[in-house]
Structure formats: C-alpha cells, structure tokens
Amino acid sequence: MRVLYCILDNRVGGPHRLALTVSRHLKRHHIETLFLVGRKTDDPWQPDEAQLFQLTHIQCFQRRAALLNLARFLGFLPYNLLRIRRLIRAHQIDIVHVDGVTNFVPALAATLTRVPVVWTYNDYIGPRLRKIFLPIVARLADRIIIQGENIRTRYPRNHRRLEEKIVFLPSAVDPQEFDPDRFTARDREALRAEFQIPADHALIGTIGNINVMKGHDDFIEAAGQLKQRQPKTRFLIVGRQLDTASDYWDRLQALLDRLGLRDDVIFTGFRTDIARICHALDVFVLPSILESCPVVVLEAMAMKVPVVATDVGAVSEMVVAGRTGLLVPPRDAGAIAEAVTTCLGQSPAERDAMTEAARKRVETDFAVDRIAFRQKRMYEALGARPGDHG
User: Both 71 and 136 in a single domain?
Assistant: First the structure.
C-alpha cells in the first residue's frame, strides 16, 4: 500500500516530525509513505528516507498579502489539481492523507481520482472559515482524524456527517529515539556550553516555530518574572523565525529589550536534535495559545523533562495535571512563571516521580508502534479502491 501524505507547509514542525515518525513504523507493515508539501521557503524539508514532492500556491488563505495569494491560488488551481492527480496515478497511491483543515486541494484531486481521503484535523480556524471548510471536509474525507476528545468541541454539534467519519488517533513519539538513557551528562554539558549556559544556571526551554499561536511572548513575559525570582536562569527558544510572522518577531525583540532579557533568552533557530535539547533542559514549557495534540509535549515527557503546558487542545489528555506535568491557563505568563518555579523547587524524589510517570504514560498511550498500528488498521479498512490510477 502507498500513502501520499500532504502538508501545506515545507517549514519543518511538529506535523512533519509526527508524520515521518509514523511513516517509519508503517513501512515495517509494508505501507510506503510519500510526502507532498506546499512550498513556502527555499529551505525545504527533505526527509532522507522518503520521497517528497513540492507544489506552490496550494494554500488558499494567508494573512500576508491575502488577496494576491488568493489570486495566485486560483490561477494555479487547475495545474495543481492536474499535477497531484498525475502523482497519484504515476506512483499508484492508494490513500491520500491530508493534514490541516484548509488543505483541500490534495483531497479534491484524490476524490477526482477516486482514491480514499484521510483528513487530519489538527489546526484551528475561526467560525467564518469553519462554515466554508468543514462542509468540504465532510464531503471529501472518508475518515477524519482528531487527535483528542477535546477537539470535538470545535465541530458544530449538529454536523452528523462529520461525526460519522471521525476517528480518534493522538500524536505519537518514538520512545527509543526520545530516550534519556541515550544521552550522558557530557552531552548535556556540551549543549549547554554551545549556548554559553553557566553550569549553575537552570535552563528553561520551549520548542516551536516562531508565530503568535505558539505564545512566545507569554514565555518571555514569564522569563522576566522568573529572572527576578531566580537570577541564575537562562531561557531557550528553539524554532524557525518565519518570514510570514515578521511583525511578531519584532514584537518579541522589543519585549526582550523592555524586560532587559537580551542576554538571558537565546533563540537557537531551527534544530533537528530535539531529543538532545530536551536532555539539556531543566523544565520544558509549552506556552501555546492554540494547539491540537502537540508532539513536542510528548517528546519532552519521553525525555523525562518536567513539563509546564497551557491547557489548550488535547494537552490535558497528554499531561495529567499534577502527576505527569503541570497545566496552566493560556495567555497567563504569571501562571507559567509560578508553575516553572514549582518544578524548579521540587525535591529529586518529587521530580523523578513526575518524570517517570510522564515517561510511562508516553510508553503506554502514545508510543509510535501502537499509534502506527492503529493508523495501519484504518488505512486497511478503507482499502485500495479500484480507481483510474492503476
């Protein structure tokens, strides 16, 4: 069986890491995954072990130059539909798996080619766009993946066609890749030395590309409060600076200057060594305003790093408050600072109990072999329908 997995953005993030991790395990079950991404940057994602295709202008709505982008999208739509249909036929694709509610071009091409569509609902759109896109999802999708029960509330309650197609399938992490026993004290020291973190300083980090939904401004506000309480603290922000969020980047720089944190908050840019970075942290923070089922939380839990996360999306279904991590309200820098202070003040026994419970929860409920097997069963239930791509 062959699956074409489609993501709107070629800038690597959680959806890419999750899809690639699952695809490696699906391959063991004789399911090959090919990737199709929208081209937003000249520094594209290129997974070594999977074939990747790129198309421009497959996203219909963007905040930046919205009307110009829409015109380009419409102009390229016939070509992109034709290109995707040719890919489906040429590579004998059996399933098209679409990531993101507004990513409907691959789904439409699959439907025109009579290939089943699996659609992952993992982002947030406002009420107006929901009225436009959810009927499209309901019409084109054969299965709709939601990554947490809390996310069901984003659907209109009376949309029966959507409900009938929903499958619950959370994010996943590979516990063998994200295993703290793979790393040593020397690895931790080397990474901290790379960013000139003094040995006696606590290191608090967050991981995610720089955009307003990730709540980096709240993380920096919390950093300012923490710095006053515990001067021997440094802060790491891991993620790509997006050219589509340049105004937000400027706001963050101004906030650093206002709080006097220019030397205390370190932007690492894009990194691939997420497990190694987690190993060097004393506390991981997810300050997001909106999320679905962020894989980075599971990665930190697997690495036995104390987790402070905002209670958004399906996060409360991953982090059991007070047992495997701490939950705080979104948009509350004070709550983040207080929760991080609590983590730093834990005794070694308290810290070990929380992080061991977090690791066990990942192994029990979110290990990639379990999730990949469920995804395999879903693909097989749809089957390879007789289409015109053979």
Answer: yes
Write out pLDDT tens, residues 326-369: 999 999 999 999 999 999 999 999 999 999 999 999 999 999 99
Residue 82 reports pLDDT greater than 80 = yes
- For tokens 């101004």, the residue is 254
Q: Mean pLDDT, the chain, as a whole number?
A: 91
Q: Out of 4-18, 51-65, 186-200, 225-239, which region has the weakest mean confidence (pLDDT)? A: 51-65
Long-range contacts: 338-347, Cβ < 8 Å, 24+? Answer: 339/308, 340/204, 340/222, 340/226, 340/283, 340/285, 340/308, 341/226, 341/229, 341/230, 343/282, 343/283, 343/306, 343/308, 344/202, 344/230, 344/282, 344/283, 346/306
Q: Are residues 212 and 119 in the same domain?
A: no
Residue 144 pairs in a beta bridge with: 119, 166
Phi and psi at 53, nearest 5°, equal -125, 150
CA–CA separation, 145 and 347 (whole Å): 40
Give yes or no: residues 202 and 347 share one domain. yes
**Residue-wise pLDDT tens digits, 113-134:** 999 999 998 766 666 777 778 8
Q: In terms of domains, do 246 and 310 share one?
A: yes
Cβ proximity of 193 and 271 under 8 Å = no
Whether residue 333 lies inside any domain: the answer is: yes
Domain residues for 113?
A: 2-172+368-382
CA-based nearest residue to 265, from 273, 275, 250, 255? 255
Which residues of 301-350 form beta strands (DSSP E)? 307-310, 326-328
State the pLDDT at residue 213: 92
Angle at CA 216, nearest 5°, toward 188 and 324?
A: 55
Is 282 in the same domain as 247? yes
Residue 356: count other Cβ atoms within 10 Å of its Cβ.
12
Say what the pTM is.
Answer: 0.91
Tokens 């932007």 -> residue:
267
Burial status of residue 359 (CB atoms within 10 A of its CB: 0-12, 13-18, 19 or more) = buried
